[in-house]
Amino acid sequence: LKEKPHPHLVWGFTLIEFALYIAVAVGLVTAAGAIGLNALFAKTKLAAVEEVMHNARFGIAIMTDRIERASAITSPGPGLGASVLILQMPQAAENPTEFDLSAGRLRMREGASPFVDLTSDEVVITNLSFTNLSHFLTPGSIRMAITIESANSSGRQEYEFQETFFTSASVRRN
After folding, report:
1. Which of 26, 117, 132, 164 is the most buried (most CB within 10 A)?
2. Residue 172 DSSP label
3. pTM confidence score
4. Residue 44: band (very low, low, confident or very high) from pLDDT cuts 50, 70, 90
5. Which long-range contacts (CB under 8 A, 24 or more apart) does 124-128 make?
């Protein structure tokens, strides 16, 4: 006669099986947590990128508009570069219009009014340069280069983003 196995041995788990199931469960929970953290860091990084891009678009749009509306480029002179742009404007209240960099902010002043910040405190401008590409007897063209980075006071990597933007604009004859 054949002996029947004990019921606990047939239906129960061994200690090794139990440890294996726990290890698989811990691995799945760890993987899910890592994916969640990665998604959270990606969202934070995207916010930093969007802030830099928004400030760049806004600043460049304002500068381009003022260059196109200007009567002439006062500084920098033809073929020269500078960190300050001064434009001669047709309207007396806006003449001159100046753009510069101060304490990491892009600023604009029109006429006798005080300087106004064009960028937020969420970004820092590390480089601003204007090159006058004008030729003799032309209305004038300016090449702008601006480097903007997110203001990362915490030093965390997910808040770091920097981009350099280049564009050109020309004075339009009125």
Report:
1. 132
2. P
3. 0.74
4. confident
5. 124/148, 124/149, 124/150, 124/151, 125/101, 126/162, 127/164, 128/83, 128/99, 128/100, 128/101
Query: What pLDDT is attached to residue 6?
Result: 58
Owner of token pair 């570069």: 81
Look up residue 140 and give its two tokens: 């004038």
Best CA proximity match to 96, nearest among 57, 67, 135 = 67
Instruction: Using DSSP, state whether 102 is helix, strand or coil.
Output: strand
Could you tell me if 145 and 165 are in contact, meaning their C-beta atoms sit under 8 angstroms apart?
Answer: yes
pLDDT at 16 over 90: no
Q: Which DSSP state fits 151? A: -
Query: How many whole angstroms separate alpha carbon 51 and alpha carbon 149?
Result: 9
